[in-house]
Write a structure and sequence with these properties.
Blueprint lengths: L9 H4 L2 H4 L4 E7 L3 H12 L2 E8 L4 E7 L8 E7 L11 E8 L2 H10 L3 E8 L6 E6 L5 E6 L7 E7 L3 H12 L2 E8 L4 E7 L8 E7 L11 E8 L2 H15 L2 E8 L6 E6 L5 E6 H11 L1
Parallel strand pairs: 1-4, 5-8, 9-12, 13-16
Antiparallel strand pairs: 1-13, 2-3, 3-4, 5-9, 6-7, 7-8, 10-11, 11-12, 14-15, 15-16
Helix pairs in contact: 5-6
């Protein structure tokens, strides 16, 4: 009788995400007019257009924008589907955030370019951080946070979840993130947890928000996913598989290369249905340099 492949004990497997080399690569979402959004992000937010690609046979185009090169920085990946000019953002997606040294100046610039400010700059309720909120042409909200110089100005993706403790546990176990900050605001009936791979002011974090008593949200069809790098998509998928059995969620794409690109990925949904794609580190860099 043939010997079965050795089974990695689950506690050993769960150590893998903590040792793995991970960072946030990009956040993917859909827009109704690529050029309009590129113009807004470059003029109002100071992002750079890093690359653009058109896939006519699949009837879509992408643009990648950010504050630094894709090799080192978190970027937005905008998707334009031919002929679709409007999307439903849903009630679950919250906002993106940009750290800037002068929120007041950024707000002035956005307003001068015709952008919409939905919250004037000023300190947060009961705190010292100075923030403002702006809306992009598709209705996505950006929180503008006043902060000293940072290597990662594109610093947050905020998603609403139905059970904060479950989500914290999921992102810790499945993705090896650490909770860098937790805030409970009973007077406003919400709690938040910042999840990431380094301290909040140094990197990008997922801001998970729980509104008291709300367990479900609509996803809409606008926001798609975040992509995170890994040194081994197969091992990472095994971990996710294990964690989904305990906490919910599911793998939506088994690990392996994408046809035509050969970049190895795996994708999955968390217990609230938010999607994450894990991308092989080396393949990602090869793909970037191929497009140059």
């Amino acid at each position: 009788m043939a010997e079965a492949a050795p089974v990695v004990p689950s506690d050993e497997l769960l150590e893998w995400p903590k040792k793995d080399k991970r960072r946030f690569l990009h956040v993917v979402y859909r827009v109704g007019d690529l050029d309009r959004t590129i113009k807004f992000y470059t003029e109002c937010f100071g992002m750079k257009l890093l690359r653009k690609r058109d896939i006519p046979e699949e009837k879509y185009s992408n643009a990648f924008l950010g504050f630094g090169p894709e090799e080192t920085n978190f970027v937005v990946e905008l998707t334009y589907n031919y002929g679709v000019d409007k999307y439903d953002i849903g009630t679950g997606f919250g906002h993106f955030a940009i750290a800037t040294q002068d929120v007041y100046k950024m707000v002035e610039d956005i307003r001068a370019k015709g952008g919409i400010i939905t919250r004037e700059p000023g300190p947060v309720k009961g705190g010292k951080s100075v923030i403002a909120f702006a809306k992009d042409p598709d209705g996505y909200i950006f929180e503008l946070i006043q902060r000293g110089p940072t290597p990662e100005p594109l610093c947050q993706v905020m998603l609403r979840v139905g059970d904060l403790e479950r989500s914290i546990k999921f992102y810790e176990k499945a993705l090896g993130m650490k909770m860098v900050k937790k805030t409970d605001r009973p007077e406003y009936k919400y709690s938040i947890a910042m999840m990431g791979y380094a301290e909040e002011h140094e990197t990008t974090v997922l801001e998970l928000t729980y509104n008291y008593g709300v367990t479900e949200y609509t996803k809409g069809n606008a926001y798609a996913q975040v992509a995170i790098s890994t040194d081994d998509v197969y091992k990472s998928a095994e971990v996710v598989n294990l964690v989904t059995k305990e906490l919910g969620g599911k793998i939506t794409r088994q690990p392996g290369p994408i046809p035509g690109l050969n970049t190895k990925i795996t994708s999955f949904l968390d217990p609230d249905g938010w999607k994450t794609v894990l991308v092989d580190n080396e393949d990602f860099l090869k793909e970037l340099h191929k497009e140059e």
